[in-house]
Amino acid sequence: MKKYLKISILIFSLFTIFFFVQNKYNKKTSLVFQENNSKKYVALTFDDGPHPKYTDMLLDGLKERNVKATFFVIGKNAQNNYNVLKRMIDEGHIIGNHTYSHKNLFLLKEKQILKEIDQTNQIIEAVSLKPVKYFRPSYGNYNAKIINLAQMEVVLWNVDSLDWKIRNSNRITRKVVSKVQNGSIILMHDIYKTSVKAAFKIIDELQKEGYEFVTIDKLLETSVEE
Ligand code: NI
Any idea which residues carry the catalytic annotation? Predict the structure, then answer.
């Protein structure tokens, strides 16, 4: 009788372990399946603001669509449009540093470069209460010296909307939508009305194609995992 009980317990335990392992395995495979097949991520980044009128307009539309974006602000503009900067942060967008006065950093001395970066971080951090993580140098100009001075993560882009030049929302939209892939970082500027209108069209079209709009930190995190 005792021996019979022991065997029963053993069989029961093996059965439980088998089910547990199989269940775990199934869960894991379905998760991988979802990640690879149905999730497409894209990040919208807006440079050179905040603008007193168009950034607010943009924030309204992003809120309506439940989209979070990344803003690389110019320190001077952030200082002059403090309420807009605060709204960006309050509404969950990520703020990066785009220098204080948008100078070409290649032409500046080390001390001046540091000032361009530090001043901007101070303005953002006074509102966000946390360190600024991302830096996008003006004109995308950077080298080892600038990276070393900034001590921040440099984030560029891989889809250029050329919105500053095109100034037609339909044409900007077509340009961006035709180039976007999973993991794209789109460069736009929230200082033109046509860019804001284009951003809404881009979001609406890409969401229909199954894209999810995420901030830079989420996109970079996802890229590392893959
Ligand atoms: Ni810029």
Answer: 47, 189
